Amino acid sequence: MLVDAFTSVLAIIALIGGKFAGWSWLDPIMGIVGSGVVFSWAYALMRDTSGILLDRTPSSSDLPDQIRRAVERDGDSLITDLYLWQVGTGKFAAIVSIVAHEPRSSDEYRELLREHEELVHLTIETEHCREHEPHS
What we know:
The chain has four helices and three strands, in the order H-H-H-E-E-H-E. It is α+β, with helices and mostly antiparallel strands. It has two domains: 2-51, no CATH class; 63-128, Alpha-Beta Plaits (2-Layer Sandwich). A hairpin with a 2-residue loop joins strand 1 and strand 2 (91-100). The mean pLDDT is 84.
């Protein structure tokens, strides 16, 4: 809205300058300035929101590593698949697949990650590991 208001003010200034001062060249100049402002604003908006729209995790985020450390700390649980994406500014959603010989409930794993307030939606899938079990 601010960019729209700014370009409208530029157009009004150009019309007044053209009518009262005879500066007919002012209208195209203000049009070029206005388009530059709109382009700059649109570029910044695309840069800031493209990661959210494309479900991308910012490279500066260490949240995937923190999730792995929290879940795998018990020595039995192993994350086999972790999909993390940004759903808003500083807000993330995750799908975590965990394999363990003695899997905990989803609520217990969710509790391990409760300290991460930026994790606003969490889906946890657990699977019982049957490898390396004693045979009966």
